[in-house]
Amino acid sequence: MTISDRTETFFGKRVEDYQGGDVAGGPGIVHRLCLDYDDDKSMGVLLEEYLSKIDKSALDALILGPWSEPHDTGPDDAFEVLIAHAAELKSLKALFVGDMTFEDCEISWIIQGNYEALLQAFPQLEVLRIRGATSLQLPAFSHAALRELVIESGGLPREISEGLAQSTLPSLEHLELWLGTDEYGFDGDVELLRGVLQKLRTPKLRHLGLRDSEIADEVAAWLATEGWVAELDTLDLSLGTLGDEGAKALLASPHVVKLKRLDLSHHYIGAPVQAQLRAAIPGVVLDDPQEADDGHRYVAVGE
């Protein structure tokens, strides 16, 4: 499976594409800036044009979609434009960088950028969503306002998790990491993830997603032992390789059964254990069951 659909809603608003020209839309619209694959224009140039045509003081959400040749260049030129206009963008609270499908660029090919200066320039940012982890730079940072952090990847590099394990996000309510596979860059382990949660877990955290993981059974076995899991509303272990081993650990946990929602979609759990999960956890989601291929399990989103 690859990402085949662009985002339709973001920050509670309907998404509309902007590729140049007049800006259409209203208060319930968030724009996704898009370029064709072989466009001579850069995302920075398109963003500068877009900002010149809107009320910058009212902009609260923005999506950077496909830029030209995203497998070769990242969004740093767009970041420079945002930072240059930061004083005029005081209302910007939500940013999604890399909203593109496999037709634009496979997730593991997307070249990302350096978020250090961007996060410093926008202390009011509440939502940051990043797709792609190749060349991603997210060193340890402190941010008082960030409520939601999502990093989608086919393989999350160790240095990103290490940076998060040294970061301070006191307002964090929603954390979602797509771990992926070692074939596409994942080189972490449960101990590293434990460090991330030890640092980023706050009393406000209600949604934890450790998705698209080739070590889903190990992640489930670890989380089953953590008492703080009972304080979550949602635990999302979907898109990965979870099988009976990890599912049974979740079943045996007195903490997991207290969840309002346990999303295990795209899984390798046998029918008997699925039945046990449904009986024990009313909020469990078991969509998209998979069958192993010659003993091999695959995450939903890799390349």
UniProtKB/TrEMBL annotation:
InterPro entries: Leu-rich_rpt (IPR001611), LRR_dom_sf (IPR032675), STM4015-like (IPR047722). It comes from the Bacteria. It holds the Pfam family LRR_6. Coiled coil: none annotated. NCBIfam families: fam_STM4015. This is Leucine-rich repeat domain-containing protein.
